[in-house]
Amino acid sequence: MRESDPVTKIRGIGEQIRKQLSSMEIETVGDLIRHYPARYETYASPVPIAEVTPGKICAVRGEIISDPVTNRYGGLVRTTVRFRDASGTIRLTWFRMPYIAGSLKKGNVRIARGRVTEGRYGLTMDQPALADDAGYEALMEHLQPVYSLPARISQRSFSKWMRAALDALDLSEDYLPRDIRERYQLTEQNFSIRNIHFPADEKEMLSARRRLVFDEFFQFILRARGMREEREQQGNPYHFQADDWAERLIRSLPYELTGAQKKVWSEIRTDLLGSRLMNRLIQGDVGSGKTVLAALALATAAENGWQSALMVPTEVLAEQHYRTLTRMFESAGIPVRCVLLTGALTAARKRKAQEAAASHEADVIIGTQALIQEKAVYDRLALVITDEQHRFGVQQREALAGKGSGTHILVMSATPIPRTLAIILYGDLDLSVLDEVPANRTPIRSCVVGPDKRRTSWNFIRRQVEAGRQAYIVCPLVEESEGVPAENVKDYSAAFARAFPGIRIGVLHGRMKPMEKNQVMEQFARGEIQVLIATTVIEVGVDVPNATVMMIENAERFGLAQLHQLRGRVGRGQYESYCIFLDGSGDPMKNRRLQILNQTEDGFRIASEDLKMRGPGDIFGVQQSGEFHFQLGDVYTDAPVLEAAAEAADRILAEDPRLESPACRKIREEIHRKAVWKEPAL
Q1: Mind listing the pLDDT tens digit for each residue in 562-572?
Q2: 236-434 sits in which CATH class?
């Protein structure tokens, strides 16, 4: 079996399972083995039923004392049996698993393990796994992987497929030379991939994870360094001289540029007028004024007869930028012609926009991925800008630049990263930092609460809606996922709708089609949706000045930098705004971590604190900042590994800049064969 083979090569995976795996971006055997565990569990010895703790995962050994009963409530199927030992009884309950009834035989003695709850029916164990004595004893000997899976796929089945894939693959050839592995104390690739899934103990798991994180960073950095070298060999073929329009635009603004904005504009202007192509990142906090700087660059390109393109991740945001920039240019009295090009346009409007770009009737083309499609042709394209860079991949950015014959590149990101890490991660870009926020930015009142305050928070949102405002609620999951105790959008929105039937609710998540996402965001922007319940897809959104509340469920599952980004969705208008971080862990240490967000709205300070406060205990269960789509690595938790990978990459490139030696050719082939980080799908 090869990594490139489809997952259906694995016994037990048919067409229906293939479709479910495809929704998780698992198409090949290689994709499967790189779907790493979300966390691990240790299997403790069974306890008497009388000693279980509600709210905790427990194991009990007992006898099935009733025949299974399967009931259907609407679209929900529930199967239950009674289970007892010498100390008491408990009800075992499975949802959406009617087939399990066939394996539940009255009189069988089993060990049941699952989360215990207590209600009007007494003790209940939800979605328990059953094992005989020998099987459970084997589980107790090792760490057990827990994967992020949709409810329709069980942990047991997924682990079975994973073992089958690992047993069938030959992973013995390692692309990393021995001297690098020894210098940085890295395990072999074969060991690492097998032991990230099925480690004997925590030490083996951490060793395997460190190697795979190193791979992610190392390959990413080498690729970025190669791109930078290629671009630095290109001179500046564009003649930029006049910059009167930019000065007129600055004078027309109803406010003065901050000192940071003036400094960064000077750097951009120097690049445009310099001897080599600009390749610059503007890294600025939410509301720091990046759009104004983009407008100045676009105006300068237009004044000198060149064309520009601005790419953003969503059609709603593209329309917002189109309106904002058009208004800014008109207010300044400068004749910059803008056109909008997105996939949502009618065929006639899209054709007209493409014609305007190809004929240079438009100076600035603003759009989504439609800008990099084959039919998008430009005339004298000299400048490309990507906004909200963390929603684009390197390939998409380069595809837009490739629409010209070498262009100036300006990248904008709202995720603050400590400078030492940013220099490594953005190795192909020059770095500019906006570390001031305009004085007119509305402060946001934040608080950290526990699950016991959820209803109070909902009532606060209701009062805000009654006052004419709008709110966001963010959940970590799209739907219930076995083994991941966190709120999900589908069940949460249903519960909220039952509690407040008069409130207009919208749902938004990454599995929706782009057209559906845009429609929901447009309805929210127009005020037709009062409460938007979503995953972190709203981290990049549209300015909704009327939105005054951001409530984040399971805030302990996110990095501080990402929480700061989510908070930045509110506080964009004249109304006082609020952010509610609901910590579902009950862990006081994580509460102290979240208190940083109460103390400051300075994104760079938050990023630095995030770096300091994350440790080995945060490796699992905390989502990444969103800026880099690594499968395992986190730029905060794994900063030492990131620095080691950068050092290794620099050593190799110093000796063999083009990776032409036999040892380096393997590295080059690995980088081109697959990317171990994910290019985000929009």
Answers
A1: 788 888 888 88
A2: alpha beta
